[in-house]
Amino acid sequence: MTKTPLQFRHNGRDVALFVDGGVNLLVALRELIGDMTPKFGCGQGGCGACGVLIDGELHLSCLTLAETVNGRTVETLDGLKDGPNLHPLQRAFMEQFAAQCGYCTPGMLMAAKALLDRNPSPTRAEVIEAISGNICRCTGYEPIINAVLAAATGGRARA
Amino acid sequence: MAKHRGRGIASINYPIGMNLGGDPSQALVHSNPSGKFTVSLSSIDLGQGMKSVTRQICAETLGVPVEDVYVDTADSDTGPHCMGSFASRGTHRVGNAVMAAAKEARGVMMEAAAEELEVNAADLDTDGRGNIHVKGAPHRSISTKDVAIAAQFKQGKTISGRGIFLVPLSEVDPETGEMSPATCYAHACLVAEVEVDDETGEVAMVRMDSAYELGRALNPRLVEQQLVGGAWMGISHALFETPEPYYPDPAHGPRDFVEYLMPGPGDVCPHDIAVLERPAADGPFGAKGPGEMCANPVLPAVANAIFNAVGVRMDELPITPEKVLRAIKAQGGARPQARR
């Protein structure tokens, strides 16, 4: 089977690889690039654990053909921290105890980042809307909502 | 056609662990040459924090900083025997085993330190910051790291300890059938307030208030986290989740997360929790642990709240809009009960 050459920007770094036709972005990231931060939850867009940002917009990598990101920018949880410094969202998740088993956390963080990038001070309802495509089995969502609001500038004032 | 509010209450006595075969858990504690300690367990941390509390229990018992303890869990091929993470037993059973193992390891550590300081081990104490000193003479001290190195390279000792927690097997009284299935019980009470739509049968959570008595809360933030998350699971069991909605007919069963319903972030409600600490006599530092009971009282409280709101007694889970609507129709309309 012919492989397709693929180049894109992955967390600030240019990557080039060959993919089989039909391979989805989640497989390309995890198995070909070795970025294990996007998680495989359901493989059919129902849980949000595989969420990544493509050109700044939230996408489910399990439903995205790898070939479609050619020449584009892909951000995953692995690129969220700045060297040894955690992203404010990551710190807020820690401080608010917003993770238990942690499987949904990468998707939650990317969905939250997509929200805060376009709306730095969301209301509680806007946070709920932003993570409504992400399933969490452990936390009861409340600590996650509180963490996103805590990380947002002025989020609490408006909530 | 209207929305009706109702309030329901449920109380719970919850056994910690069980008594099949004595419900044993084992733990091993040993020092590394760096003076840090490793706890080996076969029980797994499912995310509720057993790794954190066993780490705290070990550090507290050894008298060393919590940063100096590493907990290695969940390899039942190579680790000590453990019944597992279930029956709300982790903190109590595994914690007790870790405490026993850490006590034995502390004994060896103090003997090794005594040899280095040329004093009697009974005259030594730990400062909780990684040093061992002569009681009343803090300047006569040695670091746990130097003790570990001396034990390893000079004294030929392993600073290690073994621990097991085993409940005496409870015999069943042939006359009465009475037995003692658990050594301690946790308690809780939860009030749920719901809003029932008598046109659609939908039940929305309005708020919850609860009080949990679970021994000493070894890590209060983890306890709260577990109670908040567990209550969500309770809502889910009460109102949403089922693999076979028309049991025993498997037809129309959910096939994926799109059809297997669970409450989303928009379906949760404010939950005010009071944690009451009444230390258990046989718990590690008095702990019993929240465990499964953080979900359990939500189900009956929600069912009672629905009765209070519209007067229908739901006795099958989950309480779906369809069931509520059928029950309201069967009794000829909503009959709100008196608010208490």
Automatic annotation (TrEMBL), chain A:
The keyword Cell inner membrane does not apply. The lineage of its organism: Bacteria, Pseudomonadati, Pseudomonadota, Alphaproteobacteria, Hyphomicrobiales. The keyword Metal-binding applies. Pfam families: Fer2, Fer2_2. Keywords: 2Fe-2S, Iron, Iron-sulfur, Metal-binding, Oxidoreductase. Residues 4-80 form the 2Fe-2S ferredoxin-type domain. It comes from the Bacteria. GO terms for molecular function: 2 iron, 2 sulfur cluster binding; metal ion binding; oxidoreductase activity. This is Ferredoxin. InterPro entries: 2Fe-2S-bd (IPR002888), 2Fe-2S-bd_dom_sf (IPR036884), 2Fe-2S_ferredoxin-like_sf (IPR036010), 2Fe-2S_ferredoxin-type (IPR001041), 2Fe2S_fd_BS (IPR006058), Beta-grasp_dom_sf (IPR012675), Diverse_Oxidoreductases (IPR051452).
TrEMBL record, chain B:
Transmembrane segments: none annotated. This is Aldehyde oxidase. GO terms for molecular function: oxidoreductase activity. InterPro entries: AldOxase/xan_DH_MoCoBD2 (IPR046867), AldOxase/xan_DH_Mopterin-bd_sf (IPR037165), N-heterocyclic_Hydroxylase (IPR052516). Residues 3-267 form the Aldehyde oxidase/xanthine dehydrogenase second molybdopterin binding domain. It holds the Pfam family MoCoBD_2.
